[in-house]
Specification:
The chain is α/β, with parallel strands linked by helices. The protein has 13 helices and seven strands. A seven-stranded mixed β-sheet has the order 3-2-1-4-5-7-6, sandwiched between helices. It starts with 10 loop residues before the first helix and ends in a 5-residue tail after the last strand.
Length: 315
């Protein structure tokens, strides 16, 4: 077995949320180590079908091996889930019985030092989910203007000391290029007042922000969620796991939009807008991991799961 460690977050909640059907067609947007995908295939036997995507070659290899007992029932494409249109076309699939999107970074990616995702281990500043992509964390840290750094650390990291961190990064790189995570952690540490350095890791938010920028994680997310909802058959389910408030907000807003019926002025005698309710939001408030799961897998602590069901097929 390929050494790729990824504990699927809220596995049973996701599987129950999908309301799996034998023989259904399902899309897993981030196959990772294949944990969620394995259960989808297992519980849709004997002829359920899975279409999956991932950008990480190690993940694809590990998942392919893990799912090998279901040969002929799944296909994994090296692609961003946002390119679902072309992926589904290649797979010869039109409508789906279910969609699973997991926006988390795998344990393997976080722990593999050469990838530079973690602020807890010194490594080159990389952070690319797709090793073939051009933009790296080093390029962001050394090439972005102070204003651009401030924006992404503030918006993507929701870091209250974003302005100080951005200014200190620019000052530090004038002495020499910042090339590894230890250098960046040192800059962040001196940017945050000592009284605020206790408790949660003080570098987490900035590293998260840079990772989101490097991998363009939020761009097109709204359109992707909306589009995949419209790929569902009547009664089909979409389950989305987010690990960041900005992602969760996007999902919540799209679900709210698609659940809303007529938006005409109530004074009008008849509807003229033509808007129809497309989904039912199964989770008015997102589900979170149990205390037991958080104890076993601390990375599940920030997970939020939202589930929706298609009301009518979209033409």
């Amino acid at each position: 077995m390929i050494s790729f460690s990824h504990v699927p977050v809220m596995l049973e909640e996701c599987i129950q949320g999908l309301a799996l059907k034998a023989g259904g067609v399902y899309f897993d947007g981030t196959v990772g180590g294949g944990g969620h995908s394995y259960e989808i295939l297992k519980r849709t036997s004997p002829n359920g079908r899975l279409i999956a995507t991932d950008l990480d070659d190690n993940a694809i290899a590990a998942a392919t091996e893990r799912l090998s007992e279901f040969a002929g029932r799944f296909a994994i494409y090296k692609s961003n889930y946002k390119a679902y249109e072309s992926v589904l076309q290649k797979a010869g699939a039109d409508k789906l019985d279910g969609v699973l999107l997991d926006f988390g970074v795998s344990s393997f990616q976080l722990d593999e030092e050469s990838r530079g995702f973690s602020y807890m281990k010194n490594a080159p500043l990389d952070m690319r989910m797709d090793p073939e992509a051009e933009l790296t964390a080093e390029a962001v840290v050394n090439g972005y203007s102070e204003q651009e750094l401030f924006r992404i650390i503030r918006d993507y990291g929701e870091e209250p000391f974003a302005k100080r961190i951005a200014a200190n990064i620019v000052a530090e790189r004038q002495k020499g290029r910042i090339t590894d995570s230890a250098q960046l952690v040192a800059v962040i540490e001196k940017s945050i007042p000592a009284k605020f350095r206790h408790g949660a890791p003080f570098s987490r938010k900035t590293f998260q922000a840079i990772r989101i920028e490097v991998n363009d994680e939020l761009d097109g997310l709204e359109e992707t969620v909306r589009g995949l909802c419209r790929r569902l058959k009547k009664g089909g389910r979409i389950c989305i796991l987010t690990f960041h408030s900005l992602e969760d907000r996007i999902v919540k807003n799209v679900f709210r939009e698609l659940e809303t019926d007529c938006i005409c002025d109530k004074s009008l005698p008849v509807c003229v807008c033509g808007k129809k309710k497309e989904i039912t939001n199964i989770t008015k408030k997102p589900l979170t991991a149990s205390q037991e799961e958080v104890r076993k897998n601390p990375r599940s602590k920030s997970a939020k799961l939202r589930i929706a069901e298609r009301v009518e097929e979209y033409n």
